[in-house]
Amino acid sequence: MNKNSALVKRHAVRAFEDKAAVDLNVLKDIVKEAGLAPSWGNSQPWKAYLAVGQTVKNIRETHFNSATNHVKGSPEVVSPKGWSDYAKNNMKQTTAKNDQFLGDDGNQDYSDFNAKLFNAPAIIYITIPKISSAYSTYDAGAFGYGLALSAYEHGLAAMTAYELIRYPKEIRDAFTIPEDEVLMMGVAIGYPQDKKLNQLHTDRNDLEKFLSIED
Ligand SMILES: Cc1cc2nc3c(=O)[nH]c(=O)nc-3n(C[C@H](O)[C@H](O)[C@H](O)COP(=O)(O)O)c2cc1C
């Protein structure tokens, strides 16, 4: 593995620096580069909404109030069938390892920083048309992953999170998003804080578990 590649360097960053705003031109480059993702027939089904400055601060504050008051999330895209046993087992192992590494204080930080939307100075929201082929969700995922990888290429860090789109109203109040688009996912971008919370190392299954080869 190439340790310097963005693919290998990328990991979830759940606490961003407060002070450092991100250059708007860099953020625009990141979105442009992510837009090079392949898509079915070059359909490019994604749209991106970028919150920075006072807008992102307002969203973070509203979100914090909802999260700390335990308001139930109402995402616009809901998994139709839940998780397979294979996925459940992967999540269980990940949570157990994270819990152990973080300890009580770190776990508190984990939820606190989710509620604070990771202190992110920039959040990019991804939408796709409400009426979409399943292939468009695949394409939007490629776009979202591109955002994260490009951020690392630019010396930044990124965080893909459900938490970011858990309360769609706070986002729709900040932007004019057409009703025929659904909020699919959010990607936060910024400079990472030097914190234990940002040092989680998640494992991946051995290749044999998810790769079948026939020669
Ligand atoms: C679609 C998606 C949603 C996620 N939602 C959250 C979230 O709401 N909160 C959180 O702390 N992490 C969230 N994560 C981060 C995952 O937990 C993380 O990517 C996973 O554990 C693998 O770790 P790594 O990103 O460091 O490789 C999300 C990741 C993805 C791809």
UniProtKB/TrEMBL annotation:
Any Pfam family hit: Nitroreductase
Classification via Gene3D superfamilies: NADH Oxidase (3.40.109.10)
CDD domains tied to this protein: PnbA_NfnB-like
Highest taxon, organism lineage: Bacteria
Keyword terms, alphabetized: Flavoprotein, FMN, Oxidoreductase
SUPFAM superfamilies: FMN-dependent nitroreductase-like (SSF55469)
InterPro entries from the UniProt entry: Nitroreductase, Nitroreductase-like, Nitroreductase/BluB
Every Nitroreductase domain range: 8-191
GO MF annotation: an example: oxidoreductase activity
PANTHER family recorded: IODOTYROSINE DEIODINASE 1 (PTHR23026:SF90), NADPH NITROREDUCTASE (PTHR23026)
The protein's name in its UniProt record: Nitroreductase
